[in-house]
Amino acid sequence: MSQKIIRDPVHDVIAFQTDSPTDALLFQLINADEFQRLRRVRQLGMATLAYPGADHSRYSHSLGVMETARKILAHVRRSNPIGEADFTACVVGALLHDLGHGPFSHVFERISGVDHEDITRQIVQDPASQIHQHLIAFDPSLPERVLAMLSGAGRRTFLHDILSSQLDADRFDYLLRDNLMTGSGYGNYDLTWLLHALVVDEGSGRLAVTIKGVSAVEAYLQARYHMYRNVYFHKVVRSGEGMVKLALQRARRLAIQERLLWPLRESAMYKALMGQQLSFSEFIDLDDVSVMHCFKLWCHSDDRILAMLCHGLLYRRVFKTIDLTRSDTQSAAHALARAHDVITGAGGEPDYEMFFDEAEDTPYEFQSFTEEASAADVGHLGKDILVRDNDGKLTTFSSISPLSRVLNRQLMFRRLHVAGAYRDGVRDAIRGLDQSR
C-alpha cells in the first residue's frame, strides 16, 4: 500500500493512502495552484511583530483542519454509519475552507471589500480552477456538495458541526497551531481526550460530548480565551494590523489622486486596492508577498504618511498604545478628541497617525433553554455545546459547567494607538480623564 506523507508540527504524520479514492483526491487538491497559494498567506498576519515564530501559513492550518476533521470522522463513524459521499464532502470542505483568504486575511478584506467565503465559493465553482476540475473529475456533484457543507445549508447535522461550530475542526487546529508557533503557552489543551469524548446524538443528529469530556471542553474554552487575550488581541499585533489598514487606505487615496506610482494599474494588487473585480488568475497572484513588496517600495514614497507607515511595518516601528479599557464610552471619546487636537496642533495628520481600536470577543456563546425543552429542542440550539450524560440525555454545556457563565462575558480592550512622536503629548493631554466611570 503506497502512501504520501506530510510531516506537521501539530499532528505529526498526515498520511494519504494513494489507493483510497478520497485520499487521492485530497492529495490532488493540496497540489492545486489555488491551494498552494495559501503557502504565501500567513495565518496570523502581523502577529510576528509580537511573536517572531508566528510565520505559519493558511496552507499548514488548512492541512491541520483536514486532518482534525478526519480524526473526528474516524472516531464517530465507529458507532455511526457515514456514507462515503458525505465523508468525502466533509473532509474536502475542511481542507478548502480558507481557500479564498486574501493577503493579511481580514485586514485586507476590510479594505478591498472582498469576502473570503465568496472567493472560496467562486474558486470551487470556477471551471478554470484546478480545484474545480479535480472535484468534478471525482464526482460532478461534489463542488455543490462541498459548498452546501461549508454553508450549513439544509438541516444541521454533526457533519456541519465538524466544519462550523464551537467544537469545530477549524478551532481545534488553529488554537494548538497558533499556540505552538507563537510559543505563548496559552492555547494548549487535550485534543486527544476531547476527540475521544465526541459522540453523535441520535435524536438531534448533532455533534455532542459525553459527560466525561466536560473537563476537556472547559480546558479548550479557557485556551481560546487566553489566546484571544494574549495573542490575537496583543497590543502590538493590533497596532500592526491597524497600521496595515491605514497604509492601504492611504495608498488607495493616493491612487485615486493619481499620485501612486506602484502598483501598476493592470496589476492584481492595484485592482484589489481599488476594490475592483479580480479575475480568477489575478486573485491567485495576490498574496502577502504582493502587499509586502508594495510596502518596500512605498517606504520611499514622497508622501510622508505612506512612507512612515510602511517603514514602521517593515522595521517594527509600530504606533504606541494608550490603554483606555477602563474608560467608559464618553471618556474614551474625550480622549480620542484630545489626541486628535494634539496631533493636529503638532502639524500631523490624525486620520493616519492615530486610530482607536476596540477589540472584542465572547469566548463562549450559549442560549438558554427551559427544563421542559425536548432533546430535539436542545439539539437545535445552534451555539451551545451539547453534552450527553450517562443515561443518554442531551443537555447543554452551559447548564452543566459554571465556567460557561464566566466565559460568556465579553472580552474587550479599548486602546488608542498613536505615532511615537505624539505619544507623550497625547498622554499628557488625556491625563486626568476619569477612566473608571
How would you concisely characterize the structure shown here?
By secondary structure, the chain is of the alpha+beta class.
Helices and strands in order:
Layout: E1 3-8, E2 12-17, H1 21-30, H2 33-36, H3 58-76, H4 84-96, H5 106-112, H6 116-125, H7 130-138, H8 142-151, H9 158-163, H10 169-182, H11 191-196, E3 198-200, E4 207-210, H12 214-232, H13 235-256, H14 268-273, H15 280-284, H16 288-298, H17 304-314, E5 320-323, H18 329-345, H19 350-353, E6 354-361, H20 375-379, E7 386-388, E8 394-396, H21 403-407, E9 411-418, H22 423-430
Helix pairs in contact: 1-7, 3-4, 3-10, 4-8, 5-13, 10-12, 13-17, 16-17, 18-22
* End-to-end gap: 68 Å
CATH architecture of the domain at 3-194: Orthogonal Bundle
CATH topology of the domain at 3-194: Hypothetical protein af1432
Biggest sheet details: 4 strands, mixed
CATH class assignment of the domain at 3-194: Mainly Alpha
What share of residues is helical? 40-55%
User: How confident is the prediction overall: mean pLDDT?
Assistant: 92
Low-pLDDT residue spans: 369-376
With strands numbered from the N-terminus, the spatial order across the biggest sheet is 3-4-7-8
What general form does the structure show? globular
At the fourth CATH level, what is the homologous superfamily of the domain at 3-194? Hypothetical protein af1432
- Report the count of strand segments: 9
Range of strand content: 5-15%
Rounded Rg: 24 Å
